[in-house]
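Consider the following assembly input.
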Amino acid sequence: MEIKTVRGMKDILPGEVARWERVEQSARSTLRAYGFEEIRTPVLEATGLFERAIGQATDIVSKEMYTFNERGGASVSLRPEATASVCRAYVEHHMNSEGALAKLYLIGPMFRTERPQAGRQRQFHQISAEAIGCAHPLADVEMITLLSDLLIGAGADRFTLLLNSVGCGHETCRARFVTLFTQYLKAHLPSLCPECRGRYPKRVWRILDCKKEGCRKVTRGGPSLAEHIRTAACDCGRHFETVQKGLKASGVAFQIEPCLVRGLDYYTKTAFEVVAQGLGAQDAVAAGGRYDGLVELLGGPQVGGVGMAIGLERLMLALEAGGKNAAEEAKGGVYVALLGESGVESALHFVRKLREGGVPCHMAFETSRSLKSQLREADRLKLRSVVMLGEREMERQVVTVKDLVAREQKELPIRELVAYLTRAVQ
RNA sequence: GUGGGUGUAGCUCAGCCGGCAGAGCACCUGACUGUGGCUCAGGGGGCCGUGGGUUCAAAUCCCAUCACCCACCCCA
């Protein structure tokens, strides 16, 4: 029986890697421009980290993590997202003592045991950025602007930025809303969909973003989250105002989505999500928000933080849907065709020299193959030049160099070959 | 976890009222001795997802199972 990739895992094949590299390179340069530095944390963390940070009641922690026991018995999990790990590292390495806001980014795989579907895999990749150590709304503005520039830099254009505030735990803010909302829903439970009725006792406010018309009708008639945040005694209302003004000043388009709610418990105040067109059901390409309180929860200082993550597979899908698949560039490079054994040693020598000079080289190993098939292979590899080396050439210490594009060929002394081809590439 | 769809050549798929396993693309070889793309001719390649059942006979009908896809859910 053939062994295949594990369910939900996917190979990224050579033909696609070029696109991944382009996106990653563009992202790194944008992140550098915003003053972010890369951090690489382990893929494996203590299970308790995610239970505490993301929340035990969330779907991610309660049923989507790859969790197992180490030999000693300690429970560990593959990370389902990046923020918890980065905050853990921030605390563990006392990054707050460096004074400045810690601006960190991480590119890597995340793991969730969900049922795979379009735009959803069990191992997927994110670019995530975190600004830890500051509660100021302009940090939110910078984070969202960064996100927008990352997407534009990757070549995405048809996307929509949804923005909301989810308030904070202050008694006059989200906490009060949740209490009132719960009371209100109690009377309307029969009108809700079965899923929402299931959500009712534990995660009431996820009912807010249910897409079913019946549920929306009910929630519209209830207390307003936005209104509570606006009038709360904490600074959530002003914070949200400043974020919106800052985004306008930065020239970042957004759309207020009053029902936007995040699935991770640590979010406070600003929450945002980017949806792209043409992606099917899993259309959220990026998302993020503020998480004041998370660092403290992990045993660190009382500092604010804000972050976001881009789903790379989904971004690739969005680029494809937008026809942004740049045609693969014509390769340069040289194919060394051998006619008989006599030229092998000479070929080995100059192939090494060519590669030293940065010229991509392919060499035929099977000298018994017909020249025809060797040329066909060179053509298929989209190489520019073919160096032919056989008895005839060896006798006179020359090589035949054929230009596949110009369809011309000429003879050169072997000594001049490396210099000639190195020049041709530049 | 729930529902629907699909599993046949390397790829995309046809064949499915049971009767010898097919096409296009790709690959290999050849068309005056050592010259690519185009054309033409030939060729290799299949446990018809897996296991069971019905039948003289199963890719085809029935049951089970697995995988993939899509949607719900969830989320990036």
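The domain at 14-168+234-321 of chain A is CATH 3.30.930.10 (BirA Bifunctional Protein; domain 2). Ask yourself how this observation constrains the way the partners meet.
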